[in-house]
Amino acid sequence: MNTLIINLKSSQDRRDFQKRQFEKLGLDFEILEAFSVADLSEEQYQKFGFGWQRPLRKVEVACFLSHQKAWEEVLKRNQPCLILEDDAVLASNAKEILNEIEQQQFPDVDLINLEVRSRKKIISRTPVCTLDHTQVKLYDLYQDRTGAAGYILYPSGAQKLLNRLAKTAPAIADGFIFSAYELHCLQAEPAVIIQEDQLGAYG
Fold it and tell me: What is the CATH number of domain 2-198?
């Protein structure tokens, strides 16, 4: 599966971390250069930063634009991609899980969330499917509340997010994604990804 890691050009330490992690996992990745605050003009900030429930900080607008760039890349490639922020930590069996997901034929799935982040989610009572070898279960995800550090986005989902953006102001990246109720989302359980700052919370 194509993997795009959103990374600021100046964050060499995180690129090095991901290189070590992916070598250990036996996976490939590509760097998608993140949109930085330095790239954000005052005109862009005024346009994008004040349409959500509170004013966005410049770093939040830059983060959103980085995710938008990833959605556009998914649409251009017309293939599902794993989109990661550069502090994402993957489970040791991530390669096997991703291979199994890639082999599944999901006719109407737009996004699979692989992350947890210390807040409850609302999911279906029973899984949509169970991956044979890893026994990871995929549930319908009805409501998520935080986290956009690791998700598989399908071209259909990328199109829906970009269509939404044409009519709706940007928000924090995870808030925008998980308030797009037109997306059919699944949640992996157990999760495959956490952010580095969540390592302690999940032992």
Answer: 3.90.550
